[in-house]
Design goal:
The protein is mainly alpha-helical. The protein has six helices and three strands. Helix 4 packs antiparallel against helix 5.
Amino acid sequence: MVRNPASATRNPASDPPGPRLLRIQEVAAETGLTPRSIRYYEEFGLLQPAARSQGDYRLYDTSDLERLRFIRELRDDAGFSLAEIGLLLEDEAARIRDAERFRAAGDVEERKAILRGLLERIDRQVSTLEDKATRLRAMIGEANERREHLRAHLDDLEGGRSEHEGRLAAR
């Protein structure tokens, strides 16, 4: 993520209109995360504030908000660990860097090497996603088995048989 070093000493209250920078409490309200989570993501390396105020407050821009929402979705909705999220974010940053390197490279061998590196990263992403999908399918299968077990109990009770009588009748 490209940061504007000049913005590090901005005073949002007195600066002219431009990219709006938010303090951590405002970001928390916008994203549904706690300030503690946001700081933890920064410590974990998933996020860097766009700038710091003169009072050394963290300041965030719209790209930071988007990144935090993406992290929250991967964590909460898709069940990714922070380490897995870190790899996905790292891969995305590398993809952007490598795309720029590819455009600047004149040598065919260098371009091939860049593409091979990108393919390795994509293969790792696909593997991570497939592993996650496999775990989810197994969890769905287990939940379906529990549902069928409960339905069998309900069917026994609705048929007027006790659980014990149902087991005897099944033998």
